[in-house]
């Protein structure tokens, strides 16, 4: 039971990463490697701000803003600098490593004895693991509402069409470069926010915590898609990402529980994502098989 | 004639790979004036400069020298996005004109703000709006009106192309560019879309340029016909002279050049 509750809490705060990557990977239709740098960037920013005496809320918002700046850098490199998106992301990600060290002044920084979003007084009455669920729910519900509304605005629709058919978007007068930059900024803002939440929950930030972020974020999206194969509206899609994120965390918790080492988690993550990615293909083959039998 | 001048190309020239061994003039000193309500069909073999002409007018290819005017206004320096304010385009490939993962209604909604600012305001897909979409899509007579909530990617090629055409004309363009927009369709669907295109252009008195490889279409439709070769306009006939032309005349012309 405790495992399940822990997985739900973790899943909720990690779902912010899934949201961020959804905007670039699924809507704009490219893999944004920046996130591997943005995640620790958000964590470093939040932890440093809190350590300097800022309130956890300000620190978390600050982390999101700094994250969106990283998205801006990648966006400008990609659209104006004409650098391929994969490389643009890797450049920003690499640069962010040094920036993170500068921000924290050291390779990792603890929040020991400091306040965080999860240590507000009203949360103390809750049992273990529940503060994460409460804060995670508040954040993710707010984000879902905001994103669902944004995607339904004229601007949001222009953003979607930029990923769907850039040539047509331009022929309708949409500045696809600006839409791409905007998307990268929002996406990395969300990842930075995720980094801030995870760091506060863990009680520390570490420059190396970004390794594998893209796999984790993708896993929540793909698992959501594999489980819910019907055509869904965008708000529904966002909810499946939350569910996917929780499911993924649950699998990790179980893996640890049955005796795997924490060092194995990255391997397990990659295997889970790999399987989830292959599943639609395997499923299609099976369906084709039954069709052939009938024919 | 006191018909207003709508679009004017003034010594439009495009040179690619300038200063290199493979330098090539793909649009060579083209001057062309379209008047209000002109419907011009454009013929020419592959590489003659038809697409270059369209890209230059649409702003997706910059001029090396020369100017483009919309009415009195010099629009040479405007980029592709800025020109969509007065210009709409239908591509040959049905996949290019519509967003496949968005519904037919969403596509139409996007086209309603062609060239306008995209605000941080709800897109406004109301029941009234949908009813108006049903009305306009019915005019295409191909079942598109029953599929407003379907993803554009799931439509047939003919429906997709009809949707592209509707989207281009929904917000009245000053200049409409049709880039072989019926070429990818089967003969029947192609003829039907051509018919609707023609009606719409005359009803709304649109100024249009249409690239085609279909000699009959080039003769049957429009009030003016130009032939491009080697980046120049090699033939330009209009009015009565165009009406008297036959497919044999055109074939003779192509064989001679």
Which features would summarize this protein structure in a list?
heterodimer, A: 295 residues, mainly alpha, two-stranded antiparallel ribbon, disordered C terminus, B: 257 residues, alpha/beta, Rossmann fold, 6-stranded mixed β-sheet, 4-stranded antiparallel β-sheet, 10 strands, 35% helix
Present the secondary structure layout:
The complex is a heterodimer of chains A (295) and B (257).
Chain A: H1 2-28, H2 35-51, H3 56-79, H4 85-104, E1 108-110, H5 130-151, H6 154-164, H7 166-171, H8 176-202, E2 204-206, H9 213-227, H10 234-257, H11 265-294
Antiparallel strand pairs in A: 1-2
Chain B: E1 5-16, E2 24-35, E3 39-44, H1 50-58, E4 65-70, E5 73-74, H2 80-83, E6 87-90, H3 94-97, H4 104-111, H5 127-138, H6 157-170, E7 175-179, H7 187-203, E8 208-211, H8 215-220, E9 224-229, E10 232-238, H9 239-244, H10 247-256
Parallel strand pairs in B: 3-8, 3-9, 6-7, 7-8
Antiparallel strand pairs in B: 1-2, 1-4, 4-5, 9-10
Fold and architecture overview:
The complex is a heterodimer of chains A (295) and B (257). Chain A has one domain (2-209). Chain A is mainly α. In chain A, 76% of the residues lie in helices and 2% in strands. Chain A has helices at residues 2-28, 35-51, 56-79, 85-104, 130-151, 154-164, 166-171, 176-202, 213-227, 234-257, 265-294; strands at residues 108-110, 204-206. In chain A, strands 1-2 form a two-stranded antiparallel ribbon. Chain A is globular. The model of chain A is unreliable at 291-295 (pLDDT under 50). With 257 residues, chain B is of the alpha/beta class. Chain B has one domain (5-256): Rossmann fold. Chain B has helices at 50-58, 80-83, 94-97, 104-111, 127-138, 157-170, 187-203, 215-220, 239-244, 247-256, and strands at residues 5-16, 24-35, 39-44, 65-70, 73-74, 87-90, 175-179, 208-211, 224-229, 232-238. Chain B has a six-stranded mixed beta sheet with strand order 6-7-8-3-9-10, with helices on both faces. A four-stranded antiparallel beta sheet of chain B has the order 2-1-4-5, covered by helices on one side. In chain B, a hairpin with a 2-residue loop joins strand 9 (224-229) and strand 10. The radius of gyration of chain B is 19 Å and the shape is globular. The model of chain B has no long low-confidence stretch (mean pLDDT 93). The chains are: A mainly alpha (295), B alpha/beta (257). The A-B interface holds A 149-150, 152-158, 160-161, 164-165, 167-175, 231 and B 58, 60, 80-82, 84-85, 88-89, 91, 95-102, 106, 109-111, 113-116, 118-123, 151, 167.
């Amino acid at each position: 039971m405790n495992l399940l509750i822990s997985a739900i809490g973790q899943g909720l705060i990690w779902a912010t990463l899934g949201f961020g990557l959804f905007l670039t990977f699924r809507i704009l239709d490219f893999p944004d490697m920046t996130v591997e740098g943005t995640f620790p960037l958000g964590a470093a920013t939040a932890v440093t701000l809190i350590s300097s005496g800022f309130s956890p809320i300000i620190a978390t918002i600050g982390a999101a803003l700094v994250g969106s700046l990283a998205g801006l850098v990648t966006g400008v490199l990609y659209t104006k600098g004409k650098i391929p998106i994969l490389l643009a992301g890797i450049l920003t990600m690499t640069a962010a490593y040094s920036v993170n060290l500068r921000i924290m002044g050291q390779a990792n920084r603890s929040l020991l004895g400091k306040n965080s979003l999860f240590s507000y007084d009203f949360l103390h009455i809750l049992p273990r693991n529940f503060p994460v669920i409460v804060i995670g729910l508040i954040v993710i519900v707010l984000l879902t509402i905001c994103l669902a509304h944004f995607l339904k605005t004229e601007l949001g629709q222009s953003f979607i069409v930029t990923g769907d058919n850039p040539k047509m978007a331009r022929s309708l007068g949409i500045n696809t470069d600006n839409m791409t930059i905007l998307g990268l900024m929002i996406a990395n803002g969300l990842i930075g926010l995720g980094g801030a939440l995870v760091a506060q929950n863990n009680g520390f930030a570490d420059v190396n915590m970004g390794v594998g972020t893209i796999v984790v974020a993708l896993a929540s999206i793909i698992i959501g898609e594999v489980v819910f194969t019907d055509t869904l509206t965008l708000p529904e899609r966002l909810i499946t990402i939350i569910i996917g994120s929780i499911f993924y965390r649950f699998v990790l918790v179980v893996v640890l529980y049955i005796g795997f080492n924490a060092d194995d988690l990255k391997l397990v993550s990659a295997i889970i994502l790999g399987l989830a990615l292959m599943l639609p293909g395997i499923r299609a083959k099976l369906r084709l098989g039954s069709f052939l039998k009938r024919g | 004639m006191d018909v207003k001048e709508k679009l004017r190309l003034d010594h439009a020239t495009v040179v690619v790979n300038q200063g290199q061994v493979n330098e090539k003039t793909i649009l060579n000193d083209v001057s062309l004036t379209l008047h209000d309500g002109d419907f011009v069909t454009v013929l020419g073999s592959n590489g003659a400069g038809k697409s270059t002409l369209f890209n230059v007018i649409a702003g997706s290819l910059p001029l090396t020298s020369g100017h483009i005017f919309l009415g009195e206004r010099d629009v040479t320096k405007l980029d592709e996005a800025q020109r969509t304010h007065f210009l709409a385009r239908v591509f040959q490939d049905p996949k290019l004109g519509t967003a496949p993962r968005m519904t037919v209604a969403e596509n139409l909604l996007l086209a309603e703000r062609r060239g306008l600012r995209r605000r941080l305001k709800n897109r406004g897909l109301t029941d009234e709006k949908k009813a108006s979409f049903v009305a306009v899509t019915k005019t295409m007579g191909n079942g598109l009106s029953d599929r407003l909530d379907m993803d554009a990617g799931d439509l047939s090629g003919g429906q997709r192309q009809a949707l592209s055409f509707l989207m281009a004309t929904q917000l009245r363009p000053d200049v409409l560019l049709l880039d072989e927009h019926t070429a990818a369709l089967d003969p029947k669907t192609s003829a039907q879309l051509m018919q609707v295109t023609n009606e719409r252009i005359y009803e709304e008195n649109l100024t249009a340029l249409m690239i085609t490889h279909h000699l009959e279409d080039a003769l049957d439709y429009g009030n003016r016909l130009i032939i491009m070769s080697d980046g120049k306009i090699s033939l330009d006939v209009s009015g009565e002279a165009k009406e008297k032309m036959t497919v044999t005349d055109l074939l003779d012309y192509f064989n001679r050049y």
